[in-house]
Amino acid sequence: MDLLNIIALAIALAMDAFAVAIATGVRLKRVSLRQFFRLAWHFGLFQAMMPVMGWAAGLTVRASIERYDHWIAFGLLAFVGINMIREAFKMEEDARQKQDPTRGLTLVMLSVATSIDALAVGLTISMLQVSIWFPALVIGLVAGVFTVVGLHLGKSVGSAERLSPMAGVLGGVVLLAIGVKILIEHNAVGFLF
Q: Which domain holds residue 72?
């Protein structure tokens, strides 16, 4: 794999992290340096780790992972997205009491959900008999950068007070749409069409 292919792959894998970062920025409205770091670090780390894990697993577990990875990603994104939509409709809730998506279990779930495709990429790279270390590093760095940019964009949109309730719903819908997109890409909902 040449550098251009690795960068293109990294950008494609970072799109889900970018969209989730925008939704997170919209929801938070004000994002601290610590929140920027936590989300970018975790998204980048998970994006870098997943291909390594997939590469290490090789062909032995490929069939098992491919059957369910899209459902796992969808479930995690749907859970977080539905919670975001539900919270957007709770008018009495104080903004300071909202759960911070850059902390705890939500952060881990988002990190796994946005990087599960990278696991399949690692499996593919192992079949090509290519070293995983440099591609994993590039994938992680690109995901981290895209996360920071996405958070900044989301924060800019979310800080407009009149857009706040709609922004929370929009963020949840974006997460659900990413989950559905993953299912469609894996032909998991083909029976519906």
A: 3-188
| Gap between the Cα atoms of 58 and 27, Å rounded | 38
Tens-digit pLDDT profile for the chain (193 aa)? Answer: 788 888 888 888 888 888 888 888 887 878 889 989 999 999 999 999 999 998 888 756 666 666 776 777 677 667 777 876 776 676 445 444 457 778 888 888 888 888 887 887 887 777 677 789 999 999 999 999 999 999 998 888 766 555 556 666 776 777 678 778 878 877 777 655 5
**Is there a domain that residue 28 lies in?**
yes
- CA gap 43, 69 in Å, rounded: 17
DSSP 8-state symbol, 98: S
Total tally of structural domains belonging to the chain: 1
Give domain status of residue 87, yes or no. Answer: yes
pTM of the model: 0.70
- Cα separation, 25 vs 59, in Å, equals 38
193 in any annotated domain: no
Residue 178 falls within a domain, yes or no? yes
3-state SS, residue 103: coil
